[in-house]
Amino acid sequence: MQKNRQTISLVLGSGGARGYAHIGVIEELQMQGYKIDSISGSSMGALIGALYACGKLQEFKEWILTLDILDVVKLLDFSLTGKGIIGGDKVFHIVEEMIGDVLIEDLPISYTAVATDLIKQKEVWIQKGKLLDAVRASVAIPTVFTPKEINGRYLVDGGVLNPLPIAPTISDTTDITVAISLNAKSSKKYVVNIPKVESDKKNKIEHIILDMKNKAEKLFLKETKSEYGEMGMFDIMGRTIDIMQNAVLECKMAGYSPDIIIGIPNDACGFYEFNRAYEMIELGRVIAKDLGLDH
Question: Would you write out the chain's pLDDT as a tens digit for each of its 295 residues?
Fold first, then answer.
């Protein structure tokens, strides 16, 4: 642990279920003595950042790690409005209970949630107003979660235009900027030890999610068989989003570079494999520790 606590501007990227790795990285940064004074996040990064900023990250972690099969079934509320496959209301009711009616301007640290304005096709930085609304807008993955309307603007996933929002931290007076990318290309294999109880639970929930995915595909597609092997609608959507974000990320990184970048491999888990929370949290911790940030 460092004797002098360096302050950090933390940038949390988008990448679906891989976003759970943010939790492990944050815990490791704290273990090494760093002080997070500013957070900017897109999509899952905006959610994890918000929970940290309002002091509820540990509560959220405990919740996701104790979800059982019935909990997962109850939380997946399919929407037939035509705006998104999943309404997200049930999940966000839980998140709302954790976050409460907190305003961004009242947080103890600087916070920015990045979203995308569907109509004006612009990147939106949400730095004031209800924290929950900001998160709900930033995580609205197109065609999956319904958009969030704020002040007449229809907002969706920030990762559409900026999967790793470094720019909002440029004016920070912190010592260093640390960015966590969930779309890294890495040939290195990391070993993550998963207790049998966690592995069994992951597999059981995986079967439930797979069954519900298949049912959703039958609702929205006339033909569920694919010429692309085992890939269904959700798999194709997830891969498409990953490809898009990788291309956007390369352009954004050319303009702004953090002092340290922590890369979570983009093949660590699928975009929608939210049943792998334990594994992703531990992977984030292992990668952050492996980088030796306490040098």
Answer: 444 679 999 999 998 889 999 999 999 999 999 999 999 999 999 999 999 999 999 999 999 888 765 666 666 555 545 544 554 567 778 889 999 999 999 999 999 999 999 899 999 999 999 999 999 999 987 766 778 999 899 999 988 889 999 999 999 999 999 999 998 887 777 878 777 766 666 666 665 556 555 555 555 554 444 455 565 555 655 566 666 666 666 666 656 789 999 999 988 988 777 778 899 999 999 999 988 665 4
- Whether 175 sits among the annotated catalytic residues: the reply is no
Look at strands 260-265 and 143-145 and give their pairing.
unpaired
> What is residue 81's three-state secondary structure?
coil
The whole-model pTM stands at: 0.81
Q: Is 110 a catalytic residue?
A: no
3-class DSSP state of 57: helix
Annotated catalytic residue: which of 14, 38, 43, 181? Answer: 43
- Rounded-to-integer distance, Cα 113 and Cα 13, Å: 11
The catalytically annotated residue of 37, 133, 157, 242 is: 157
